[in-house]
Backbone:
């Protein structure tokens, strides 16, 4: 199983890159994380927020493999405790499908993107900066895989 992270935004600060890489390098071979950065639409180009989100939606949909399960991250999504994420990951591994996590840009995700997901998931009820979401998601995926493998990283 491949875990894809499709994230609107590029040129992240060093702390985002370092935090993300710390957790992705810990992942086992059978659950590798691959980041695909989607170029954000230029702000200040006279386009409305809706037009910007539509352009980013189109770029995301063009990049995500059609057979992958789409997990769209949004603060209005379903909260999932880490042990439940580990159970979901176990099922995803059994299904043999790759999983595409989708992170929006500065304006969030277009409603079509939220509706098109197989799962609308929240990492927090708070709005988080999209760079920080990359780090948190990578850590939670590592934590979930450590639960699956009975690794002592996760403690209850």
Residues:
């Amino acid at each position: 199983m491949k875990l894809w992270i499709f994230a609107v935004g590029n040129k992240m600060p060093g702390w985002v890159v370092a935090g993300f890489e710390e957790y992705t390098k810990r992942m086992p071979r059978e659950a590798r994380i691959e980041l695909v950065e989607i170029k954000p639409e230029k702000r200040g180009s006279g386009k409305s927020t809706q037009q910007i989100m539509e352009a980013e939606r189109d770029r995301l949909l063009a990049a995500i493999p059609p057979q992958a399960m789409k997990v769209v991250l949004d603060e209005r999504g379903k909260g999932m405790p880490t042990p439940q994420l580990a159970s979901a990951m176990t099922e995803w591994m059994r299904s043999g499908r790759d999983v595409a996590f989708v992170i929006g840009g500065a304006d969030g995700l277009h409603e079509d993107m939220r509706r098109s997901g197989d799962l609308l998931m929240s990492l927090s009820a708070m709005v988080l900066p999209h760079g920080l979401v990359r780090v948190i998601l990578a850590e939670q995926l590592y934590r979930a895989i450590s639960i699956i493998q009975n690794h002592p990283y996760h403690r209850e």
User: Anything to note?
Assistant: The chain has a mean pLDDT of 92. The chain has five helices and five strands. The longest strand covers residues 69-79. The two ends are 26 Å apart (CA to CA).
